[in-house]
Amino acid sequence: MATIGTVPLNRVKLWREPDFANAELMVASYRTHRFPPHAHDEYAIGVIERGAQAYLDGRGRRAIMPQGTICVINPGSIHEGRPAIDGGWDYRMAYIPTRDFVRLVGAHDPGLKGELHFPDVVIDDVETMRLLLAAHRCSQSTDASQLEKSSRLTVAVFQLIDRHCVGAKGVRHPLAIPIAVRRARDYIDAHVTANPSLDQLTEVAGISAFHLLREFKRVIGIAPHAYLIQRRVALAKGLLLRGMPLRQVAIEVGYCDQSHLSREFCKFYGVPPGTARQ
């Protein structure tokens, strides 16, 4: 199991659970770290074990995630986080790829095919929280079998879905993505390692640079360059978890050296990628 490590004040450990929807699990302790605005491709489901996190999304909605609550962030939702109290917070997270999540739920309940949505980012449900916490700790255990790990995660996540998730019909889409912005975003996704230029993006989008920058930020929630960094860091994290050496990862994702990757990685996770690996 490859992990990404520890530094004073902020500690992070990551691993994969391939027998449960190819989920990525994380246990972290953040005392000082502030997450920049970003989004996940996955459903992010977690439990606050200690302290509290302050949450702000791209539409200006604020929330406090205190100890003993469940936090859920839908795919594509721009958000940022920081300590809500002195001493920060500890939490356990599971990141479930959207496609795998939808397939998992659809196999259980064909009526929930398509997009799924959690309307609340903070959920106060002690029973489900305890199930999620026990399942996450089990996943980290070296004594538990893979069957027990995937079974506990399945039971906990499905209880969360049954109680707190809505199907596509219950989802509002306040902003449709204009075709120009979609083209630019898709181009970045397809050329993450190639360092695309603004000229290339405007040519693909078919609108002026100023118009593209304004609309991209309005719709996606962050500027194109910030979106590119986010995608690169996510790609780097996946390669590190597969055991690829840090120097090679930096080259693979388009950085000129590993120190550049380390700086960007630390902005998102509070720890450098090569601090510790098991």
Fold topology:
Blueprint: E1 10-17, E2 23-30, E3 35-38, E4 42-57, E5 62-66, E6 70-73, E7 79-83, E8 89-97, H1 98-108, E9 122-123, H2 126-140, H3 146-164, H4 179-190, H5 198-205, H6 209-220, H7 224-241, H8 246-252, H9 258-269
Antiparallel strand pairs: 1-2, 2-8, 3-7, 4-5, 4-6, 4-7, 4-8, 6-9
Strand residues, percent: 15-25%
How many separate domains?
A: 2
Estimated structural class: alpha+beta
Q: Assign the CATH superfamily of the largest domain.
A: Regulatory protein AraC
Query: Helix and strand succession?
Result: EEEEEEEEHEHHHHHHHH
User: Number of helical segments?
Assistant: 9
CATH class membership of the largest domain? Mainly Beta
Biggest pleated-sheet summary: 9 strands, antiparallel
| Unreliable segments of 5+ consecutive residues | 168-175
**Fraction of residues in helices?**
40-55%
Oligomer: single chain
The rounded distance between the terminal residues' Cα atoms is 7 Å
Question: C-alpha Rg, in Å?
Answer: 19 Å
Provide a quick synopsis of the model.
The chain has two domains: 10-170, Jelly Rolls (Sandwich), CATH 2.60.120; 179-269, Homeodomain-like (Arc Repressor Mutant, subunit A), CATH 1.10.10.
What report would you give on this structure?
- This is Bacillibactin transport regulator.
- InterPro entries: AraC-bd, AraC_XylS_family_regulators, Homeodomain-like_sf, HTH-like, HTH_AraC.
- Residues 182-278 form the HTH araC/xylS-type domain.
- The protein is 41% helix and 22% strand.
- The termini are close together.
- It folds into two domains: 10-170, Jelly Rolls; 179-269, Orthogonal Bundle (Arc Repressor Mutant, subunit A).
- The protein is globular.
- The chain is α+β, with helices and mostly antiparallel strands.
- Strands 1, 2, 3, 4, 5, 6, 7, 8 and 9 form a nine-stranded antiparallel sheet that branches.
